[in-house]
Write a structure and sequence with these properties.
This protein has 511 residues and is of the alpha/beta class. The protein folds into two domains: 226 residues, FAD/NAD(P)-binding domain (3-Layer(bba) Sandwich); 194 residues, D-Amino Acid Oxidase, subunit A, domain 2 (D-Amino Acid Oxidase, Chain A, domain 2, 2-Layer Sandwich), CATH 3.30.9. It is 28% helix and 29% strand. The strands form three sheets. Strands 6, 7, 8, 9, 10, 16, 17, 18, 19 and 20 form a ten-stranded mixed beta sheet that branches. Strands 4, 5, 11, 12, 13, 14, 15, 21 and 22 form a nine-stranded mixed beta sheet that branches. Helix 3 packs parallel to helix 8, helix 4 packs across helix 5 and helix 5 crosses helix 11. The N and C termini lie far apart (59 Å). The relative contact order is 0.18.
Amino acid sequence: MKKASCKDKKPFSVAWVIARTLRQRKKECVMQTRREIPHDNGSGRLSHTVYSRNMRSNNSPWLYQLDHERKHEKLTHDITTDVAIVGAGIAGISTAFELLEKTDKKVTVIEQYRLAHGATGHNAGQLVAHFERGLKSLVEEFGLELAIAAQHDIENAWDTLKRMVATATVDIPLFIFTGNTGLTSEAQVLVRLENNRLRVAGGLEAEELIIDQTLPFSSQISDEYAGLYVLVAPDEIQRRLETERTDFVGVLSYKKGCMNSALYCQEIVAFLESRYPDRFTIYEHTSADKIVLRKDDALIDTGEFTVTAGRVILCTNGFENLRIFDESGLDIDAKYHYLVSGTRGYMSGYFEPSGKPPAAISYFVNPSDDPHIPYFYLTRRPYEYEKGEPKNLVCIGGPETSLEDTTTYSREEPYPEEYAEEIDRFITSTYDQTPGKRIEYVFTWHGLMGYTKNGVRMVGPEPTNPVLLYNLGCNGIGIMPSIYGATKIARHIRGEPVAPSIFDIPRIAKD
């Protein structure tokens, strides 16, 4: 049987490859008093780590669906390229796509580990065109015009994603629908009302906001918010949030989606290798240890070999151990590492019978209106665990820990039982409230996320040396902002005029 090649027409669908891989891996997974769990150690082979019954592995459902027989190449000699992209996650691969489609540049992607095995392969699989800090907060810092422009740009990423998928004829599940966010206090409702008022003032449509009509404050809402919300019976709140809990007082509904961004990257890379064999290359297990910026180009030291590039684009988490030097003597390295900090997020997933539609629901169970408070998020989508056995995969996330020293993070770290229990307490008290039911979590995983100081993605050229550009800082909801960032980077590389935006990289780091 002919083996699939990125330069040949694929003889098998992605669904077939997923099913084959899952069958192979399920046979290898032994669940006993001690369990032996197969996982991708980055070498291209499945390794097995043995944990005790009370420990869980970092086992992502998104990496589980990848083709683990895919060939990958490591850099073995010095090269020269027009554009070097550091990082082969959703940001790096989307940026490569836009550059190859919209310029004549030769593009090289460098990945220290494996394609889509970083944050892209360890996220919640949720598509959200939002900022976690909220529009009101953005307007207070940047003004209405710039904040609205940024929100408009992020929402346009929906069209960009659909264009990419259509152009590359990507055969992956992509679900777009109306998602919901549950609110538990008057303060949270008032923030969303103000966000809606600002959206309308800036020329955007208001998002649907429903409020429990039985609550005292529902009759005391200011007239300035007239037309920006609807009063409903409490059971409508519960219906949209798919819960029996009675402490939710409102729901914000807007466009959301679900996608395996790791599988997306895998298929986009196959397309780019086939369509642009002379202009696109990706090197995995190739670390960018040091970047030296010069006036007209940059040198990337990978430890053994050197990449000379006209432009370098950092599409990383933002806090890797790479060093950045500028021949002018400017200290770009210190600013780069200062602007982005690391957070480890924990998620769990289990199967339920198919039948319910795809969903994405956020639950603000803490009534505080602080935009930085933790919340739980849930996604549901069809997931073929074995060929011919469709199920719904329910994924839940929420617990996070800050990393003071990002060098201490390892993908091989076991999943702490305390976070598994926290997620289970939430899911059994909110979503699946069947009395006495014990949920079997098939997947438990953690991922490293980059948070910028102001919660806004960094997209654009380094102001002190435009040879270097950034598309980084997921801030918890990075897929759609990454895709927007790719379009903006392509405009910079094309030499188009780009208006100032809140995504611009600050010249001086701010506290």
